[in-house]
Every structure is written in structure tokens, then in C-alpha cells.
């Protein structure tokens, strides 16, 4: 590391970023849509329409917000079908090596996901990569919201770990909401095209957009100050 430079901390997203699960997500989404008689979406249609909070995504397709009962049924169906398909999903190409190399170089990294915390931790452990992170946090509370407040809490927890601060951190994710959450705490963001959004949707976030996780990490390294 060049003298005077601060080490960059990476905050990784999980679904659609480190975990290559977009096809499981599409399958589960279409199962949930069938509950309210919505036509299934293709991958391209999903990426063009997807947004958070999730009820707003459903509103784009229904023409109205789902009722509370509809939302609860659709959310339950989504998670049930997703859990069945997730077990066949692998890590994104190159992810394991990137995590290992970043740690070996003496850098820190953490994981923040909107996947429920009680499910996330054992899943990450099952992929054999938990030891690469100084912290793994999943969503607590109801599903369907934004990552911003979770990002706040994530950095509050990281504050005592080697001087990690948002100003010296880069969030790597696949959704516009990752960039929004990063900006909310004062971190930078790089967005990856392999997950939930189309490239054009990601570019609208006003942050760098890349087609591989390797590009994301290389770009994050240039942010060191």
C-alpha cells in the first residue's frame, strides 16, 4: 500500500452479487406472481421492472399496491420457492478467489444482505466463505424495505473494527438500492450487472457500473485516499 493511503473496506451484497442466484429469484418471483394471476416475467423484463421496496415492484405490474393479505401471501410463496432453488446456486464466478485475495492483502471486508439474518449466516457458512468477513449481517425485521437503515446499523457495528468507516468503504452490489444505502452513510458504491437490474437501470444510480466482480474490486482499490 502506498504510504499515506487508507485501506479500503469492502461491503459486499449477497443475493445477485456474491451468490449467483438470479434464476432462483426469477422462479420464486413468478411463483408469487401466479398467486395474484400475474403473467410470468423473463429475466430481461424482471431487470427492467425491479425496484425496492418490493411492494412498489409489485405495484408496477399490478397497477396498484398489493393488499396486506396479498403481500403476505406473495412474500411467503417467494421465500418458500426461493429456498428450494437456492441450494443449487453457486457463488458468482471468481468470487471466492477475490474474497481470499482481498483478505490476504490485509484488507477488510464485510457482508450486508437483505436476506433474513437467521437464514443468511448459516448459508454463508455453508459456502465456506464466512471467515473472509469481519462481519456478516442480514436483514432483521420485515422483508421488502430498503437497505439504508441496515447499512447504518452495519457501520455502527463496524465502528470498533480497525477504524472502519463509511468514508473509507466501498459497497459492491447489484441493485440501485445498494448505491442508495451507500450514499445514505457516506460510502462509495460500485454496481454489478449480473443480478437484479439492467445496466440502464444501474447507470441511473450515478455510480460506476461493471460487468464482473473482478472489475468491481479493481475499481474499489482506486478509491483509496
TrEMBL record:
One of its GO terms (molecular function) is phosphoglycolate phosphatase activity. GO terms for cellular component: cytosol. Pfam families: Hydrolase. Keywords: Hydrolase. One of its GO terms (biological process) is DNA repair. The keyword Secreted does not apply. This is HAD family hydrolase.
Amino acid at each position: 500500500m502506498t504510504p499515506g493511503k487508507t485501506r479500503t473496506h469492502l461491503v459486499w451484497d449477497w443475493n445477485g452479487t456474491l451468490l449467483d442466484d438470479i434464476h432462483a429469484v426469477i422462479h420464486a418471483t413468478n411463483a408469487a406472481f401466479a398467486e395474484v394471476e400475474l403473467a410470468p416475467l423473463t429475466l430481461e423484463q424482471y431487470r427492467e421492472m425491479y425496484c425496492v421496496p418490493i411492494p412498489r415492484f409489485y405495484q408496477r405490474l399490478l397497477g396498484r399496491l398489493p393488499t396486506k393479505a396479498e403481500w403476505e401471501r406473495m412474500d411467503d410463496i417467494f421465500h418458500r420457492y426461493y429456498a428450494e432453488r437456492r441450494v443449487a446456486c453457486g457463488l458468482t464466478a471468481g468470487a471466492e478467489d477475490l474474497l481470499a485475495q482481498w483478505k490476504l492483502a490485509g484488507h477488510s471486508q464485510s457482508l450486508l444482505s437483505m436476506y433474513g439474518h437467521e437464514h443468511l449466516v448459516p448459508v454463508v457458512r455453508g459456502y465456506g466463505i464466512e471467515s473472509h468477513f469481519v462481519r456478516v449481517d442480514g436483514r432483521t425485521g420485515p422483508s421488502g424495505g430498503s437497505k439504508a437503515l441496515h447499512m447504518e446499523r452495519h457501520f455502527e457495528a463496524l465502528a470498533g473494527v480497525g477504524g472502519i468507516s463509511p468514508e473509507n468503504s466501498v459497497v459492491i452490489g447489484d441493485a440501485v438500492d445498494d448505491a442508495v444505502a451507500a450514499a445514505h452513510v457516506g460510502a462509495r458504491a460500485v454496481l454489478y450487472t449480473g443480478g437484479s437490474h439492467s445496466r440502464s437501470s444501474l447507470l441511473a444510480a450515478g455510480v460506476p457500473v461493471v460487468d464482473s466482480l473482478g472489475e468491481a474490486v479493481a475499481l474499489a482499490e482506486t478509491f483509496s485516499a
